[in-house]
Amino acid sequence: MGLLTQAVCPACGAANRIASGRNPSLAKCGKCRHDLSLTEPIDVDDDALARHLRLTRGPVLLDVWAPWCGPCRAMGPQFVSAAHRLAGKVRLVRMNSDTAASPNKLNVAGIPALILFDQGREIGRHAGAIQAGDLVSWVMDRCKTRSAHS
Questions:
Q1: Would you give per-residue pLDDT tens digits along the chain (150 residues)?
Q2: Structural domain total, the chain
Q3: Which of 79, 89, 124, 135 could cysteine-pair with 142, CB 3.0–4.6 Å?
Q4: Which of 65, 56, 34 is nearest to 120 (CA)?
Q5: 69 is catalytic
Q6: Residues 9, 29, 32, 72: which is the catalytic one?
């Protein structure tokens, strides 16, 4: 799996190159100096998701969820754990399906839904809650398959 080479700042929206071999938890925005949050999932709205998909160089994993959804709430800590394990390799973002239009545009039929993108294109989709270890394996497998076909 390739590393993230560019990530979007969650505070100002600026694209930032990511230096390889550096600790992803220390990455700061070159424009506003805000933490790039590469080790944690970040919450996005429709505009922020579009910006991440357009400007991120590397995989982006979207978790579509809702606060009233029991499996979504159970999935939350698993998604955070996966973000720690995938730090510097994949940008993890979360979108509340109750407040965003993108889930409909992405044909999300049920939640929780995980959609994996690479260079803005969908490369994988998973429906339902999943444990962190299985999620990391699923992401790595999809990214390896994508690299083999590129």
A1: 457 889 999 999 999 998 877 788 888 999 999 998 889 999 999 999 999 999 999 999 999 999 999 999 999 999 999 999 999 899 999 999 999 888 888 999 999 999 999 999 999 999 999 999 999 999 999 988 665 555
A2: 1
A3: 124
A4: 56
A5: yes
A6: 72
